[in-house]
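User: Predict the structure for this protein chain, please.
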Amino acid sequence: MKYTIRLVILIILASLTIFPSYGAYHYNTMEEVTIYISNIINFVDVDTVTDLLNSIDGVVYVEVTLEPPEAIIQYNYMKITLDEILYAIQDKGYTTEVK
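Assistant: Here is the predicted structure, written as structure tokens:
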């Protein structure tokens, strides 16, 4: 009996190590933010920002619009921070402001 209990505990601990997202401490790690991008002036800019954001690991949803010039982004804050997203957009020459 003791051996069986130890084996079950070992299997549970191993599964939490191998698959941590299925553990007891898994929470929703998604955030949504709207970013105003003042110098998006045409659809080339929309495509550029969309492609940039889609290439970032941790970004799961992107909608970039020309009117109003903004990006709605859903991202996993355990993989990337809002500051890193803003920096990536600014690094391409765009001006950003979080709404």
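Residues 22-26 have pLDDT under 50 and may be disordered.
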